[in-house]
Amino acid sequence: MKVKLKADLMYRSINYGDQVLIEGEMTTVGDLKLYIEKHYDIPILNQILYYNGQVLAYNHVRHLSDVLVSNPNVVLSIYTKRPPELVRVHVVINEVADGFYLNAHTTGTVLDLKDEKFGLSPHRQKITMIAKDPLHDWEVVDNYMIQDCPTIYLEKIPMDQEQLMHQGK
């Protein structure tokens, strides 16, 4: 598939105003990441690609035709990952703006962010960050941390009928 994309090169969340044009034959997100590594010297494992409201995770299976839109105003943002470090994270529960702050390590998993002190068991917590899609428990959070103080959005997953029956409700 012939790809032609405008892309912003970012360092963490800082846009240096470098907009580049990515052109070539690419089929998967993996092909796109390899192109970026070859042309812009950003190692594949150090890239966070953000496009049209979603993070393009590294894999050789996801086809670009499934994610690319024909709108020329949509720009790919290429972020570099943070080094392993402890980061202050803003937690917003059910879209209530106040929230609270906690410390999280960039090499930790999404499951590490889930805590029963939120008033819910971890399996009933849905976490999103910069993308619209919920994060999976096994994902490493540095794949999504592009800001100095990132915000995570925590939502309560309602109990299904079977869970309610086990609780006697």
From TrEMBL:
Coiled coil (UniProt feature): none
Pfam annotation, one family: ubiquitin
Domain Ubiquitin-like: residue ranges: 28-84
Full protein name: Ubiquitin-like domain-containing protein
